[in-house]
């Protein structure tokens, strides 16, 4: 969750240097994003369909616990969450507002309550993927940004069925670990379905892939992001962004991107330092072939 001055500067930097329009959200730093996800076979797996406008609307007919498809339309993003029994959207909203407005211990405490009371199951930006609903019950779909605030809607999931037992087939895997870059292969297909796994103990993670100029090093890119200088601009057209994933959770995202070199990053924020993970060494380079 990004609210620090450095994060806001980074938001302005990426928005001003990106070659494709950026989506400004509070929880994950923006990235140069075109429509990068592609609809894979939805098979018989039930689908959560989310539409963003002045409000957020959700259609989830026949959704059951287990692996379900997630589809977001109208250029927005959504993340699916499950609240603890003694936590709800009103409490979350109050803690979220406190976290945004307080840089000291009060803000840290609010963020800790959010992490304790909320399990983020993943989300996508104007595209498709899949998430795993851990059990039957009520779930909340949310979109949060600095302009319109919190938009949310709920749905209920029934008991698991044969259609939701198996994870969708994948074309590659990347893993998030505490204090380390996303772990994954040196090369990936330029289109397909990625499995994202948050193997950390305590941190939220979200995947950002940004197309960059060939030969750019992770150190150069991190330094450039932090410098707020317009030259050189390492970014090229093409990017992918997912939304918050709690520790020990998995999701998939469908994508189609131009082949080339990509920065693999996470812009989630450390609650104590208020620094984005990308400035704590969580950036690496990979190639999509």
Write the layout of secondary structure elements.
Layout: H1 5-17, E1 47-52, E2 56-59, E3 66-73, E4 77-83, H2 89-101, H3 105-117, E5 118-125, E6 128-133, E7 137-145, E8 149-157, H4 162-165, E9 172-176, E10 187-188, E11 191-198, E12 208-212, H5 218-227, E13 235-245, E14 250-256, E15 260-265, E16 283-288
Parallel strand pairs: 1-3, 9-11, 10-16
Antiparallel strand pairs: 1-2, 3-6, 4-5, 4-7, 5-13, 6-14, 7-8, 11-14, 12-13, 12-15, 15-16
How would you describe what is shown here?
The protein is an alpha+beta fold. The protein has one domain. Helix content is 18%, strand content 37%. β1 (47-52) and β2 (56-59) form a beta hairpin. The radius of gyration is 18 Å and the shape is globular. The model is unreliable at 2-37 (pLDDT under 50).
């Amino acid at each position: 969750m990004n609210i620090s001055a450095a994060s806001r500067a980074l938001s302005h930097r990426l928005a001003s240097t990106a070659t494709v329009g950026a989506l400004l959200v509070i929880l994950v730093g923006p990235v140069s994003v075109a429509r990068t996800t592609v609809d894979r076979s939805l098979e018989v797996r039930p689908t959560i369909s989310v539409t963003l406008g002045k409000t957020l609307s959700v259609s989830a007919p026949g959704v059951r616990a287990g692996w379900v498809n997630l589809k977001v339309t109208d250029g927005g993003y959504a993340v699916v969450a499950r609240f603890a029994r003694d936590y709800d959207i009103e409490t979350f909203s109050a803690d979220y507002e406190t976290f945004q407005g307080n840089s000291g211990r009060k803000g840290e405490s609010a963020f800790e309550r959010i992490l304790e009371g909320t399990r983020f199951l993943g989300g996508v930006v104007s595209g498709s993927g899949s998430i795993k609903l851990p059990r039957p019950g009520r779930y909340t779909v949310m979109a949060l940004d600095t302009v319109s605030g919190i938009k949310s809607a709920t749905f209920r999931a029934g008991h698991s069925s044969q259609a939701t037992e198996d994870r969708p087939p994948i074309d590659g895997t990347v893993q998030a670990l505490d204090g380390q870059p996303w772990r994954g292969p040196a090369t990936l297909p330029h289109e397909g379905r990625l499995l994202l796994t948050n193997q950390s103990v305590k941190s939220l993670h979200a995947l950002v892939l940004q197309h960059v100029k060939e030969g750019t090093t992770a150190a150069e890119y991190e330094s450039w992001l932090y410098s707020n200088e317009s030259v050189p601009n390492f970014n090229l057209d093409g990017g992918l962004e997912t939304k918050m994933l709690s520790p020990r959770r998995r999701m998939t995202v469908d994508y189609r991107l131009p082949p080339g070199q990509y920065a693999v990053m996470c812009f989630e924020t450390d609650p104590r330092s208020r620094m984005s993970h990308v400035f704590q060494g969580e950036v690496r380079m990979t190639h999509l072939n």
